[in-house]
Amino acid sequence: MVGCRRLLHRTCPLHELHAATFACLEFTTQKNGVRGEMIGLGRSGNAAFCPVAALINRVVHLRQAGATPVTPLYSYHHLCWFSVTSTVLTTSLRQSAATIGPTLGLSPGDISIRSLRSSGAMALLCGNVDTDRICLLGRWRSDKMLRYLHVQAFPVVANIASTMLQHGNFTLIPNNPHPTPRGDQGPVVH
Asked: Does 80 lie in the same domain as 9?
């Protein structure tokens, strides 16, 4: 999309395609069982790490290679058509982790294609995105998303102590039972 105008990615002029500000994908199969769901993202503002620019590059490659309307987005052409599989992506991520991972405290075995989902959820949490929105964006139908989050990530816990100190002065509403450590012991009697 350019603004609110939808582009026909197979036929629009390349200059219009490169001007796109929002990209949407239709998922025909998903782990959560929802078929035909549309998921979209806008530009990130970073030339190297932008989902819209990455999708434009894929579409341009497929168009230039003569892809048919049913050629999967995860295909590439080099003398013949190949598919990028989760195994190929995991291998590539692990090669990168072998190169730069030690400086980040990561080993190749720590990384897989499935890591991208948890990393995305963690990045959103560190950006103070509400967990309900993270669940919605990740299409989690339960609280299983919480398994992917690392509660000891520095951006998540860095200001916890100062926040408790700044906002720890409060008064209980009169006639309201005082909270107890276990919650099932009843009100505290003074």
From this structure: yes
- Expressed as residue numbers, the domain containing 57 is 1-84
Mind listing the pLDDT tens digit for each residue in 81-98? 999 999 999 999 999 999
75 and 139 co-located in one domain: no
Mean pLDDT split into 10-residue runs, the chain, 190 residues: 88 94 83 74 92 94 92 88 91 93 89 86 88 84 76 79 79 68 52
What is the sign of the dihedral through the CA atoms of 128, 129, 132 and 138? negative
Beta-carbon neighbour count of residue 121 at 10 Å?
A: 23
Angle CA(137)–CA(141)–CA(144) in degrees, nearest 5? 95
* Inside any domain, residue 69: yes
5 and 75, same domain (yes or no): yes
DSSP state of 179: P
Helical segments of the chain, H only: 14-18, 51-64, 86-104, 115-126, 131-138, 154-157, 160-167
Whole-structure pTM value: 0.70
Q: Is 186 inside any structural domain?
A: no
Could you identify the residue written with the tokens 């008064």?
A: 171
**Beta-carbon-side half-sphere exposure of residue 112 (alpha carbons within 13 Å):** 4
Is 179 inside any structural domain?
A: no
